[in-house]
Amino acid sequence: METMSIYEAVKNNGDSEEELKILELPVYIKEGDKMSTILSSKLMAYSSLIQKYASTLGFDGKQTSLLNQCVEQIISLVKKIEEAEFDNAYSGFISLFNLLGKVLINNKGQFKSILLVPEKELETNLFRARGGNLTDKPISEAYHAPLSKNYNCNTCRFSESGYPMLYLSQTEECLRYEFKDADEITIYMYEPKKYCNNDVKNDPDWQILDLAHPYSRQAYEIWTKAPKNDEVNVIKNSFIRHLFWPIIATCYCNYHLSPSSDELAQKERVYKVEYVFPQFLSRYLRSHHPYVSGIRYFTVRNKNLDSTSLYWTNYALFTDFSNSGDDDYDFKLLTKFYIKFHNHENLSKL
C-alpha cells in the first residue's frame, strides 16, 4: 500500500491554490516582520490542513493532536529566541523532542530510518569550495576545518558558536550558488571511503539526518510518499514525515531585506534569529544523538531551484576537535574521504 501525502490530498480535493501554497518552502520573512509571526501563520495553516485531511491521510485524533502540540511548542520557543531568552528557548527545544520522541525515535534510542538519508544516496562524491586560488597549495588545504573554533553564530545556518561544521555540496552547481558572492574559488572533490571498501560498509558514523525537504509542491509529493509495507506501518511512516515538516520548515526560514536596503547589512547581521533553531538542532544532535554525523538540507541561496531533485542539497557534517589542539584540522572526519583538487574557477561572471 502507498499512503497519500497531504499534497495529493489537496490536489484530489480540487487543487486549491491557497492550500498548496501552505506547503511551499522556504519560509520568507520580509524586512520589518517578526519570524514568530510569519512562521506561526505558516505552521498553524499547515496544522489546520492536516486536520482537514486527517481521515484521507489515515491519521487519528492522537496523531493530529500531537502535531498541534508540536506546532505550538515551536512557535513558543521561537518567540523566546526573538526575546534572546536562549536558555529557556533551548529548554523548550529539548521538551519538543521529548514530546515527539516516541514517534521519531526507535527502541534503540536512535532516529527512525525514515528520517535518515538512505544509504544508497550517500554513495556519491561531494564537493567543497575554499575562497581564492589555492592551486599552488598542497592538498592538505582541503583538510582544513571550515572555520576556526571561535566565530560568530551568524556565519552558517547549522553551526553553533565554537563548533564549526564541514559543509559539502551534492553538486558543483549547488556549490557555486553557495559561493556566488566570491570572486574566485578552489573546488575539491570528496569521495567517501566507506563506499570504496566493503569492510566499512556498515559504518554507523554515516547516519545523516535528512532535512532535505523539497520546496516545491511536486517534490513535496515525492518526499512524503511512504515506502510500501503493511498498512499500519505505511501510515505510521507517513505520519512521521508529516510530523517532522514543521521542524524542517523552521530550519528553512529566510530573511530578505527590501531592495532599497544595503546588501552589506544583510550579509553582516551580527545576530541572525533564523539561524538559532537549526543551531539548536545541531546542539541537540551532538549531545543526545552522537551517532548522527551530520545533516542534509536544501540550499536556500538560489530561489529558482528544481527541488524535486537532490541536485541542490548540501551536507553539514559535525567536526570533532581536540580541546588541546592548536590547529583547525579534524583528521578524524576528513580522513574518511579521498580528497583531490577538482577545479579553480572565477565566479565574477556567474
Q: Quick gist of this model?
A:
With 350 residues, this protein is an alpha/beta fold.
Give an overview of the whole structure.
- The structure is a single chain.
- By secondary structure, the chain is of the alpha/beta class.
- It is 39% helix and 16% strand.
- It is built from twelve helices and nine strands.
- It has helices at 6-12, 17-22, 35-52, 54-57, 61-82, 86-104, 172-178, 217-224, 231-251, 263-267, 273-288, 331-334, and strands spanning 27-30, 126-131, 165-169, 184-192, 207-211, 253-256, 292-298, 313-318, 337-346.
- The protein has a four-stranded mixed sheet. A three-stranded antiparallel sheet has the order 2-4-9, with helices on one face.
- Helix 3 runs antiparallel to helix 9 and helix 5 packs parallel to helix 9.
- The chain is globular, with a radius of gyration of 20 Å.
- The protein starts with 5 loop residues before the first helix and ends with a strand.
- Mean pLDDT is 81; it is low at 198-202.
Topology:
Elements: H1 6-12, H2 17-22, E1 27-30, H3 35-52, H4 54-57, H5 61-82, H6 86-104, E2 126-131, E3 165-169, H7 172-178, E4 184-192, E5 207-211, H8 217-224, H9 231-251, E6 253-256, H10 263-267, H11 273-288, E7 292-298, E8 313-318, H12 331-334, E9 337-346
Parallel strand pairs: 1-6, 5-7
Antiparallel strand pairs: 2-4, 3-8, 4-9, 7-8
